[in-house]
Write a structure and sequence with these properties.
The complex is a heterodimer of chains A (120) and B (240). Chain A is mainly alpha-helical and 120 residues long. Chain A has helices at 13-37, 45-67, 78-94, 99-117. Chain A has a domain at 69-120. Chain B has two domains: 9-187, no CATH class; 190-240. Chain B has 13 helices and no strands. The longest helix of chain B has 26 residues, at 137-162. Chain B starts with 8 loop residues before the first helix and ends with a helix. Classes of the chains: A mainly alpha (120), B mainly alpha (240).
């Protein structure tokens, strides 16, 4: 467990830590984007690239959350975690992109998988 | 749901609320239940968990923040890890703001709009906003995003008290909702071969880069490579 910074410690520390070490490092990119987006045309070639990088980054986050998962998700076997994602993609491909069905199917695979195969 | 150009703002906002309630808001809401439990695990107050949902508004950043505290990481390392994981908001926000922009819009309004940018509002916004009349987009977007945020706050609050009581399969299921929903949203927004390339390469390269680069830089390296390759793949199909 990370201990509070001594001279800033107090009952409000969790909130201070949240602002300093989570809110600011996240929000700064959204603020910078407001500056960068000025004057950019909605269908410029640069935006195509920006969109592709954003898509890849999001996909990367998905892969990281599956490969090194947080909390009790780590107790689900890796094959079950990957199987859940595969189920989601399969349903999207076969059902003309019905998102609700895809999410439910993936969750069914994950919950069923953990239930059947227990913790890894 | 389609929005007609002559609707008043209340009706447009309500359309945003309804579209959010049709599925996306519930998913983010349930997806952020796990944040409550992670905050509970490190002994932080419920207020900080709910506030992280409202102010950070980025599942992976929140996971990283609370999970790193649990792991005993240095504060500087936590801030840097969160910053790298959130870098995606720069390209994401740059991509969506032109859809929401109107002449004479204040910087403050743009900063506010930018705050709501996260996977749901981004993927759904890119998909739905182009068919909505330009002057109604901001109201629609705020109705949509605030609904997502409200349900998520309730989800985080509930998770703080409930998740520890759940049997393992269901607790794991809730924590896995974030990556599942990210992937489903991305898949729903695919338009051409370039998008597919970005998605697949991102999925494959991120764990590889994590293994060989690490230090927080891995994700951005994976994203830049995958995104750049995707643009070239996408362009080959376009008429010159």
């Amino acid at each position: 467990m990370t201990q509070p910074i001594a001279w800033l410690d107090g009952p409000l520390w969790p909130y201070l830590a949240l602002i300093l070490f989570a809110v600011l490092p996240t929000e700064i990119w959204r603020w910078l984007a407001v500056v960068f987006a000025r004057g950019l045309d909605a269908d410029s070639a640069l935006l195509d690239w920006v969109r592709a990088v954003a898509t890849a980054l999001l996909a990367g986050i998905v892969a990281k959350l599956i490969v090194s998962p947080p909390g009790v998700l780590a107790q689900a076997p890796i094959l079950v975690r990957i199987g859940a994602l595969a189920a989601a993609v399969a349903v999207m491909a076969l059902s003309r992109r019905r998102m609700m069905l895809a999410v439910l199917m993936a969750e069914a695979v994950l919950i069923g998988g953990v239930w059947l195969f227990g913790s890894a | 749901m389609s929005v007609s150009a002559d609707w008043g703002w209340q009706r447009v906002a309500l359309a945003g609320v309804r579209d959010a309630l049709s599925l996306p808001a519930w998913i983010v809401g349930f997806g952020l239940v796990g944040i409550g439990s992670l905050a509970h695990d490190v002994g932080y107050p419920v207020g900080s968990a709910v506030l992280s949902t409202i102010l950070v508004w980025a599942g992976p950043s929140q996971v990283l923040f609370f999970a790193s505290i649990a792991a005993g990481a240095a504060w500087s390392a936590i801030a840097i890890a969160v910053a790298f994981a959130s870098l995606r908001f720069l390209p994401m926000t740059v991509a969506i703001l032109p859809l929401l922009r109107r002449p004479g819009q204040s910087v403050w309004l743009q900063l506010l709009l930018a705050h709501y940018v996260a996977v749901t509002a981004w993927t759904e916004g890119l998909r739905r906003l182009p068919s909505i009349p330009v002057h109604q987009r901001v109201v629609y977007f705020l109705g949509f995003a605030n609904t997502c945020m409200a349900l998520s706050s309730i989800g985080t609050f509930s998770g703080y008290y409930l998740l520890g009581q759940l049997p393992l399969p269901f607790a794991a299921g809730l924590l896995c909702l974030t990556p599942i929903f990210f992937l489903v949203s991305l898949t729903a927004g695919l338009r051409h071969r370039g998008d597919v390339t970005a998605l697949v390469l991102g999925l494959v390269l991120a764990p590889i880069c994590q293994r060989f680069i690490g230090g927080g830089f891995d994700l951005i390296v994976a994203g830049l490579i995958a995104g750049t390759v995707a643009v070239f793949v996408g362009q080959r199909r376009k008429p010159a």
